[in-house]
Amino acid sequence: MLETKGAPEAVLPYRISELREGAAVPLTADRRRQILAASTALADGALRVLSLVPVTIIEVVKYFFTPAP
After folding, report:
1. Sequential pLDDT tens for the chain (69 residues)
2. End-to-end alpha-carbon separation of the chain, Å?
3. What are the sequence ranges of the domains in the chain?
4. Are 1 and 56 within 8 A, CB to CB?
5. What is the pLDDT of residue 20?
6. Can you spell out the DSSP letters for the chain?
7. Residue (of 27, 29, 35, 44) closest to 8 by Cα position
């Protein structure tokens, strides 16, 4: 397991779940919009916003070696 960080709008499209109260729950389109709206509001207030997500080695290999759609 590795950790990656990046802007929420860059990291979020690759995630299918989020950790809430210690449990993984599906990341819905509505929840994605909420997260992006909150990060935009913080960034508009001159704050830097980063997402930190766990990734597996398999996800890293797929990301770097799978052609873009």
Report:
1. 667 788 888 888 878 888 889 888 998 999 999 999 999 999 999 999 988 877 777 777 777 787 766
2. 26
3. 2-65
4. yes
5. 87
6. -EEEEE-HHHHGGG-SEEEETTEEEE--HHHHHHHHHHHHHHHHTT----EEEEE-HHHHHHHHHSPP-
7. 35
